[in-house]
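Field reference: sequence -> structure
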Amino acid sequence: MTSKSSRDNSFGKKALWLVLFGLLLPAMGSAQAVSPPDMDGVEIVRDEADLKAEVDRPDRDLVDTILAFTNLAHAAARVHCTAFNANGENVGSVWLAIPANGMRFTLASDFSSSVDFAGHARCRTGPRILGTAVLLTPSAITDLSVRQIRRPGMTVFPTIAAY
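Structure field:
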């Protein structure tokens, strides 16, 4: 015969599992940050092979910024970004489909169709997407700051440039 404390303990464990599962459901559902119908702008499709080619380019004579996104979720996700120039005017929008546990990137020049600008970008990413920024110049490559805002699922790149 099972004792009352053993039954209470079993019930407590089941209740704890249900609570934990309930907490995980919203996180699993938010892996896809933005659905395709909400996307405006140009879709950018670049992977790690394109990144290597961009970084290793020997004849670089322009300045551009790489905005890279890593998906830590076990489900595909979408990222939507909008860039603004130094006067706060909208330069353009792009979006990326990122595979589960994958990485994709865009360039600052993608926002403006290769028109020169300096400014910032805001991206709707979801909580399981991490952003990284790299400035490419003719003589150097350096990382730039990125701000991850977990609760509305936003990544802000305070400084980007393409010229």
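Note: Strands lie at 42-43, 64-71, 77-85, 90-98, 103-107, 117-124, 129-136, 141-144, 147-149, 154-162.
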